[in-house]
Amino acid sequence: MKIRFAVICFSWFCCLMMTGCLYRGDGVFKKIGNSDYKAKLSVLDVFVVADGCPTYICGAVFLEDRITPLRNAHILLIKGDQTYPVSSADTDNRGEFNMTGLYANDYYSIEIDSPDYSGKKTILVEPNKNNWHEIYATKKVK
Questions:
Q1: Which domains, ranges and CATH numbers included, belong to the chain?
Q2: What's the gap between Cα 74 and its chain centre?
Q3: Cα–Cα distance between 52 and 34 in angstroms, integer?
Q4: Contact, 121 vs 131, CB < 8 A?
Q5: Alpha carbons 19 and 95: distance in angstroms, whole number
Q6: pLDDT value at 43 more than 70
Q7: Are 64 and 137 in contact (CB under 8 A)?
Q8: In contact, 94 and 62? CB cutoff 8 Å
Q9: Is the pTM of this model over 0.85?
Q10: Cα 140 from chain centroid?
């Protein structure tokens, strides 16, 4: 009987996590403008992707002259409301990078993680599409 109760509680907890009730810090109720509190449901990012097809985030990193590619640079993808990277990649000899995954339709920032160069671009990722972006790196002042 205790095992059955534990399984039911765990199932209920998983359902709450998927709808966003416990996943978000502000809870299920969020104040919208000057209106009353209204229920806000948000499904986890995995369920946002239509048909389970991966979303491609790719592009190229160029130096300030906008011609020379930045080779072997580490690129980070950070979701708009988070501080840690969701994904990362390295640029090839042409300065191009490619990240594939199940990303939500949300704002992300692409950052260059290099001791010599800096660069950042905020993007809107569209699921099931090839999202191509160019980033221009600036030399860090030491």
A1: 2-43 (no CATH), 48-139 (2.60.40.10)
A2: 16
A3: 38
A4: no
A5: 40
A6: no
A7: yes
A8: no
A9: no
A10: 25
Place of tokens 């979701």: 79
H, E, C per residue of 99-132 = EEECCCCCEEEEEEECCCEECEEEEECCCCCEEE
CA 36 to chain centre: 31
Tokens standing for residue 18: 């998927």
Q: Dihedral of CA 12/18/23/29: which sign?
A: negative
Residues 123, 110: contact at Cβ < 8 Å? yes
Q: How far is C-alpha 105 from the chain's CA centre? A: 9
Neighbours of 137 (CB within 10 A): 22
Q: What is the pLDDT confidence band of residue 127, given thresholds at 50, 70 and 90?
A: confident
pLDDT per position as a tens digit, 12-37: 766 655 554 433 344 444 444 444 44
Q: What is the dihedral of CA 116, 141, 62, 100, to 10 degrees?
A: 50
